[in-house]
Amino acid sequence: MTGLRILIASPLGHVVADPIRSTFEGSTVVVARNHDEFLSAVAARVRFDVVSADLIFNHAQLEWTFDGLDVIEGLHQADRLAPVLLATQGHSMEEDHLAEARLRSDVSGVVAKSAGLHTFINSLRTVALGQALAEQHPKSMRPSLFELFDGRRGITAARMAGAIAAGNAVDVGSLAQVARVSNNTASKLASNYVGPMMRARHEHDDRLPLTQAAVFRWCGLHARYIVSWCRRHGHSDVLEAQR
């Protein structure tokens, strides 16, 4: 394959850029190491033939502010849709992001970085040809947060979880203020909103009471995805530092 336009969205994209150029002769390979470089790349060019993006960026700050799912949203917003290959590190923190990726029709495949450069390039070639990669891992039987954060109640739960995950809520009063819900709604965080999600995913020991403290801990465990979801769905207000 020659003459491809390839975007690699990764803090370490320069490491694979030269091997990709050598493999796909005559191709244009653009590396976007962060959000600003990604926006510049999609704004300055016609559509890419294929986009590879890290599912979670291996960078202390970026992992909280920009990820592979943001790349997909950015392609939509810029009207630069292209086949997307997501690259994973293999960390448990990727589980929630990966669960959403598997449900999205705009993801053509997922490849593990540990599989090596040869596998990555072959996967890139497959996706560039308009083909989807075969699923390598069985789908979890647990409902994903992407599915649970749907509908009016799901969105309210996500906003409250986002306020907690961002460190902006420490009790019912601050939760109600930041998430812009009533004190009555905030007080039902465990019983009616996030708590049922924890039970549906079997992430709470039923021998113990499901308290607000348990929910706060759960939000911390899933914080990266919760923050990402809020950021990408127009709820960044719950993530902003409070004055």
UniProtKB/TrEMBL annotation:
Gene3D superfamilies: 3.40.50.2300. It comes from the Bacteria. This is Response regulator.
